[in-house]
Amino acid sequence: MDFDGFFKGQLESVREEGRYRVFTEIKRHRGQFPHATRYVEDEQSEVTVWCSNDYLGMGQHPAVLEAMHRVIDECGAGAGGTRNISGNNHHHVLLENELADLHHKEAALLFTSGYVSNWAGLGTLAGRIPGCVVFSDALNHASMIEGIRHSRAERRIWNHNDPEDLDRHLSEFGSDVPKLVAFESVYSMDGDIAPIAEILDVCEKHGAMSYIDEVHAVGLYGPRGGGVAEREGLMDRITVIEGTLGKAFGVMGGYIAASADLCDFIRTFASGFIFTTALPPALAAGATASIRHLKTSEFERARQRDRVEKVRRKLDMLGIPHLPNPSHIIPVMVGDAHKCKRISDWLMDNHGIYVQPINYPTVPRGTERLRITPSPVHTDGDIDRLIEALSDIWSQCALARRSMAA
Ligand SMILES: *Cc1c(COP(=O)(O)O)cnc(C)c1O
What is the pTM (predicted TM-score) of this model? Predict the structure, then answer.
């Protein structure tokens, strides 16, 4: 077989659809984020990042950087092993204690990423509980889908954010069947938020375990940054809360928080937990510092809300269509992969504004979009430049605007 020929052919069809992924090469500047340098071959230019998941700018917070520097000096670079064999650093343990406290759970378990925590957490629970059936929200993240698939457990997909449909699916199984319901709080592409209390009512009615992905909510919602479930006083009703340390907390890593027995079970049986090198201690210390800071500081969350409102208000004034939602994510809808890519390129080349186009399979075809994530570190000037640039391209391309009333 002509392997390279095969690879080229596959890539060509992705290109024709306009959804070939081109990575933007940037260098973020500490102390100046969201400003960064963009690299194109030999040329460099200055850009403003409008699509980062470092939602609160914690990736450059002095408390986080101080902790990371200190622990590099204290422990060196890497963990030196898996958690099982010589890599179980004191700073991992401190971080797990911090996470358990954040979610008011008995325990927490750290993974190398949020993706791995979902893959290993769901895969192990569904795979190891005999006869377990998984009920998965239709818009769950790829990492949850892969974990469920890996478990080989029977799987039911329920309509997105629809507790009644979940109830119908659960009702098809007897009370003796172990059930696991998996969903997210904030869905990161539409920015909608699950009706968590109603979903938990249904779970409890059927004796099902609940597993929530709060990746796009931890640090951002709740009085201590514990997520939407904290804000709504629901953390104690959820079996497993999963989160990332790589988005609002600004560092890297993933985790689950749950009962001591459940965490011990995953620790013992999850291949993706045990057979991989532990996170560098400095990352763990940085994440701990970030969580601690956001437990008591409301400043970043309040400022982010203010920035999000301001961008939305200005988009509305210009009639630029964006999906209304109760979260911090602003999806500006384009609805065509080629157009989405062209607008993104144009914003970058003409205005130094970096908004990555979001295409299939991340979102359904026909709903291609620019996903804007304002953060506390975007200034009024940054916002004005973004809005002017969008207005400009909307006129040039004769893209549809919404009437003010719409
Ligand atoms: C990004 C993401 C993850 C994975 O988290 P990482 O720490 O980036 O691996 C999991 N779930 C959802 C919903 C995500 O968007």
Answer: 0.96
